[in-house]
Amino acid sequence: MKALAIHGKEDIRWEDREVPAPGDGEVRLRVNYVGICGSDLHYYFHGANGEYTIREPLTPGHELSGVVDLDPSGRLASGTPVTVHPARYGPSIPGLEDRPHLRPGGDYFGSAAANPHRQGGASEFLIVEEQMVRVLPENLPLERAALAEPLAVAIHAVSLADGVAGKRVLVIGAGPIGLLVVAAAVHAGAGVVGASDVRTEPLERAQALGATEVSLVGRDTIDDESYDVVFECSGVGVALTQAVRAARRAGTIVQVGMLPNADIGVNLAPMLAKELTIRGAFRFSTEIDDAVRMLAESDALDSVVSHVIPASDAVQAFELARDSSASAKVLLSL
């Protein structure tokens, strides 16, 4: 079989591997699609994602769909369409009973956080633990199903705002996650959804998903205190400053974008007088099940997938995925 492996900065290879055999409690999948995420881009272009550096060849990918190839238990028939919850949680600790994704000691597909690394899904065949498998509805195409993991991130972020129904919502950064936050906020009944970005193309995509107010950075001005809830999805310090300004008094900011692991310039002074709530959003818990249901409801999110490229052309795919003017979500086909 073939699998992708990142060996270091701008060094990704389409390699031969042995076909793995599933053990007890495991299922072998035939992977069809893998989405390229921001963390994958960091691993490829920088050889590291934040503080996590590649120390051995890393197969990327935690957004995936495919079919069951072999389930030794016989529970899942060969050819059953599935997606995967890519997390294994650490041991239960007091206070985090309802937030298993925050427990220390867990891992995630396609991550260099641990050594040896947790290998990801950009492989023709993949072994997963049976509790990670999510069977897909018959009406959900595999290509769209590859959005389940990032949509779960977006749904989780929206849930952290403690209700957006009828509220004015701003999404800063209309990349793939920002677009899915727009869709999740609309689905959750937001009264108005606005979007802000440094490029026009992402804003056009956000409008197609239900954003009715768009702001181009450098051209348009977002009024202070004009939104009840702000989702910061760019991971840029100046955008968090903008979020603090845009949020109304007693409003909520949810930080979705991955901020750099460094001292950065952010002006949080207005948060005091406005008594803002700022919350971090980290992955998700059970929301992948909500994401699968939402994806099965309609084809509205098909537009988030802008390109499907063979995994053997990974260099081209990664170059395209980091250009937000040219692409939204780029999928690798295997």
TrEMBL record:
Residues 8-332 form the Enoyl reductase (ER) domain. Keywords: Metal-binding, Oxidoreductase, Zinc. This is L-idonate 5-dehydrogenase. The keyword Zinc applies. Signal peptide: none annotated. It comes from Microbacterium luteolum. The keyword Kinase does not apply. InterPro entries: ADH-like_C (IPR013149), ADH-like_N (IPR013154), ER (IPR020843), GroES-like_sf (IPR011032), NAD(P)-bd_dom_sf (IPR036291). The lineage of its organism: Bacteria, Bacillati, Actinomycetota, Actinomycetes, Micrococcales. Its cofactor is Zn(2+). Belongs to the zinc-containing alcohol dehydrogenase family. Gene3D superfamilies: Medium-chain alcohol dehydrogenases, catalytic domain, NAD(P)-binding Rossmann-like Domain.
